[in-house]
Amino acid sequence: MEILQLVRYKNLLIVAATMFLVRYFIMQPILQSFGFELQLGLLSFAMLVLATVFITAAGYVINDYFDTRTDLVNRPQKVVVGKSVSRRMAIAVHLILSILGILLGLIVAIRVGKPIFSLLFVLTTGILWFYSTTYKRQLLIGNILVAILTGLVPLIPLIFEYPLFATYWEVIAIYQLKLYTMVYWVGGYALFAFLLTFVREIVKDIEDFEGDTVYGRNTLPVHFGIKVSKIVASSVLMITLIILIYLFASYMRFLPSGRFDYYTFTYFIVFILIPIFALFVMLLLAQNKSDYHKASRLCKYVMLFGLLYTLVFRWLIL
Prior knowledge:
- There is one protein chain.
- The protein is mainly α.
- It contains 14 helices and no strands.
- It has helices at 2-6, 9-33, 42-66, 68-74, 87-111, 119-133, 141-161, 169-174, 180-207, 209-214, 220-224, 226-252, 262-285, 289-317.
- Helix 2 packs parallel to helix 14 (289-317), helix 3 runs antiparallel to helix 5 (87-111) and helix 3 (42-66) packs parallel to helix 6.
- The radius of gyration is 21 Å and the shape is globular.
- The model has no long low-confidence stretch (mean pLDDT 91).
């Protein structure tokens, strides 16, 4: 159980669910609308998901390994490394997960004929190591890296699927099939994940202000203060809100039949836009650690509801 807690198994389930939903509830219905099917086999996709999950889990382990001292100040009840799991065991788990993730990623990359794609897993493993040892102590760099890696998760199924359509490019060009629609949708999810993860990372830094100050970390709240950090996070939330409203008004307001899309409109209002606005207000009014923890949790729920819109999307397009 301690190992499951160490690798953040709930977050790993969300990573796997994100890849599954993007593949089967965004990419597949769009491809089928153009008469195509998914080209990456089920076994390869399963290995791709496992590779991503293993690398992510390894990242959590090494982060906790190097974060033990600050976590003892910020959230002592959640510290696992050095208590129920020895530091030597933590390093061993990290190495095993990293090697398995890279190997599985390499196999899938070879299967799709793009061995260079395996670098994605090698580089991510390296970035997560240096994030834990160096980048997260540098102003904004750690926040941006985590947001980029989170935004990368929905893109991975697309990255490994797209090369397999190389043999169809002539047909796609002749019939002018708008396959790039799939790229726009998945890219939209990646952007949504990036922006909200960036906000959540800043909120978590505010929550961890005490421990980060003690150990001299150069986070946004430590460097510029909590007030400036709240303004930055709130501004990114407003930008996210404006982007979502623009995307709906410009590209998503009509169903394939030409009728106004009340389903997406209602879902966006109830599950995305109102919660983001509530998060905005909650963040501005937050005064203590408990308030920031609630804001961080709401941010996570908004991301989850955004992911669950894939179910609505598939139902609408089929």
